[in-house]
Amino acid sequence: MTLPMLLNMIILVSEDQNIDLGLTDQFILSFGVTWVVIQYDLEIDHLPKTDEHITLQTQPSSYNKFFAFREYWVLDEAGNQCISIKSLWVAMNVEQRRLAPIPPEIVAPYHSEAVRLTPRFKKPKKIEQVTASREYRIRYSDIDTNIHVNNTRYLDWMIDLLPYDFLISHQPAHINLKYDNEVRYGNTIESKYERLTIDDQTVTRHEIYNNGNLAAVANFTWQPDGEVD
After folding, report:
1. Coarse DSSP helix, strand, coil percentages of the chain, rounded to the nearest 5 percent
2. What's the half-sphere exposure (Cβ side, CA atoms, 13 Å) at 30?
3. What is the pLDDT of residue 227?
4. ∠ CA(218), CA(125), CA(221), 5° rounding?
5. Beta strands 55-63; 33-44: pairing state
6. In this protein, which residues make up the domain named Acyl-ACP thioesterase-like C-terminal (predicted)?
7. Which of 204, 119, 193 lies closest to 161 in space, CA to CA?
8. CA distance 84 to 41
């Protein structure tokens, strides 16, 4: 399973839960907002194998006026947890394209905990010296229902820069991915990365820029394939 495929699948699990609770896209849009993820933190024991049967679980755990915290778990065919994901979400005003207070009606069905502060996420470290970069033009197929780039595409652009020999010999053990600004149809983005060794671990730092503005930043920690634990 690829990382973009994994993110696509957990979003589908969220959508299935929303539909089961009556939180359809139309209902959420009736409040003038839509859900937008702003950060993921992934702990990866191992990625599921091709054709392996897996179980995906999710729980919206807590929220406050502006942020909602949701967790995901991926269980392998033997029922063992192979991936855990923490995520932070906001409500975006669909007309103004900016952060909005979360309407109580769209979180009440989750029965999650109302808190003063949601869990804090570490801020990914930025690139110090670029190893490689590449430009990509945004296509119609890159756009999601929120009329901006699907969040899985950022992972594609980040991973695409890494050498083939590296990708077939390594697996990610941890990913911290933060979205800063929207990217929309017709834009041209620049993906950059830096590869370095920290405490005997291979780390890649990634940044995506849109017209000079930082759109997304991520830190990956890698292990040789077969050594992730």
Report:
1. 20, 45, 40
2. 9
3. 54
4. 55
5. unpaired
6. 130-223
7. 193
8. 8
Structure token pair of residue 164: 């083939």
pLDDT at residue 85 tops 60: yes
The predicted pLDDT at position 143 comes to 83
pLDDT-derived band at 229, boundaries 50, 70, 90: very low
Positive or negative, the CA dihedral 129, 132, 138, 140 is negative
164 close to 13: Cβ distance less than 8 angstroms: no
The answer as to CATH 1.20.58.410 being correct for domain 3-114 is no
CB-based burial of residue 49 (10 Å sphere; 0-12 exposed, 13-18 middle, 19+ buried)?
exposed
Residue 103 pLDDT level (bands cut at 50, 70, 90)? very high
Decide if domain 132-224 falls under CATH 3.40.190.170.
no
Q: Confidence band (pLDDT; 50, 70, 90) for 226? A: low
DSSP structure string for 74-88:
EE-TTS-EEEEEEEE
Domain ranges of the chain: 3-114, 132-224
User: d(Cα 115, Cα 127) in Å, to the nearest integer?
Assistant: 34
pLDDT band at 20 (very low <50, low <70, confident <90, very high): very high
Structure tokens at 185: 């149809």
Query: Across all residues in the chain, what is the average pLDDT?
Result: 94
Q: For residue 55, is pLDDT > 60?
A: yes
Instruction: List, in order, residues 6 or more apart from 70 with CB less than 8 Å away.
Output: 14, 58, 59, 60, 61, 86, 87, 88, 89
What are the C-alpha distances in Å from 89 to residues 60, 62, 118, 164, 226?
10, 11, 10, 33, 33
